[in-house]
Design brief:
This protein is an alpha/beta fold. It has one domain: Rossmann fold, CATH 3.40.50.970. The chain has ten helices and ten strands. It is globular and about 65 Å long. The termini are far apart.
Length: about 280
């Protein structure tokens, strides 16, 4: 397999220097490393700059409503568990409009890998503050600065029951590829929160900002099975910002918990011998 096998032949139209390019390249590298063919993958997108990847990644694709990539991905995984399913979202898209879906999908442990482009602004709509914007961040709609404390997606995912919680930095492509590959391989709900500089609108969380601060948890022999230690690291943000796997556990996936789905996916189960007359009489 080659990286071109996942190309649709369309031109990327992100801002020059945007970290979305890095994530797009890295997703394809991870798929090649895992030997996943285009027809074995479904990618579901929300609305935002990240959603342009739908026009550039060759596989089964679905661009959903704002914040709704996870319920679509969830339904697809229930229908066909043989597919590798990834959801691609933005911080405003997933942690704002889609917050309830984020928490509840993590609870279910559905076998989905979620890759969030977290640039801490609404980039597509020209730089408004997002749920992950720092307190005090000034934008068009918050000229006096954001009053709320930012959402902590790592802590939320751990507390909600996600079985794989990680963070990566778009400026470190080898490490980002490793996190994406590990998330796709993981059986259960897996989060990769990608710190992704928005070079056009976010002048605070820049490449330089992250290069000075990020460090890899796995370089410090961090125990990814300790939930309390993972929560402690989730709140570390300042002069040092951890990236890597915060928490990982093996647990029965949502699809495996139903006897009706253990042997066959829904699409493999015929309905020609199902008589619905009794139900129709009861409800119609």
């Amino acid at each position: 397999m080659k990286i071109e096998d996942f190309d649709l032949g369309t031109q990327a139209r992100w801002c020059p220097g945007c970290a979305d390019f890095n994530i797009w390249v890295t997703v394809r590298q991870a798929l090649i490393e895992l030997n996943i063919q285009p027809h074995e993958l479904l990618a579901v997108y929300g609305i935002g700059c990240h959603g342009h990847m739908a026009n550039m990644l060759k596989c089964y694709g679905f661009e959903s409503l704002h914040g709704r990539s996870l319920p679509v991905a969830f339904g697809a995984k229930l229908a066909n568990r043989n597919l590798n399913v990834i959801a691609v979202a933005g911080d405003g898209d997933c942690y704002g409009e889609g917050m309830s879906h984020f928490i509840n999908t993590a609870r279910t442990n559905a076998d989905i890998a979620l890759i969030v482009h977290n640039n801490m602004v609404y980039g597509l709509t020209t730089g408004q503050a997002s749920p992950t914007s720092a307190k005090g961040y000034k934008s068009k709609v918050t000229p006096d600065g954001v009053f709320d404390v930012p959402v902590n997606p790592i802590a939320l995912a751990i507390s909600a029951g996600a079985t794989f919680v990680s963070r990566a930095f778009a400026g470190n492509i080898p490490h980002l590829k490793q996190m994406i590959a590990e998330a796709i391989k993981h059986r259960g709900f897996a989060l990769v929160d990608v710190l992704q500089p928005c070079i056009t609108y976010n002048k605070i969380n820049t490449y330089e900002f992250y290069y000075k601060r990020v460090y890899r948890l796995q370089d410090e022999n961090f125990d990814t099975g300790d939930k309390m230690k993972a929560m402690e690291k989730a709140f570390e943000w300042g002069d040092r910002i951890p990236i890597g796997i915060f928490y990982r556990e093996e647990r029965e996936t949502y699809e495996e918990s139903f006897p009706q789905l253990k042997e066959k996916s829904l699409f493999e189960q015929g309905i020609s011998n199902v008589n619905v007359d009794r139900l129709m009489e009861e409800f119609v």
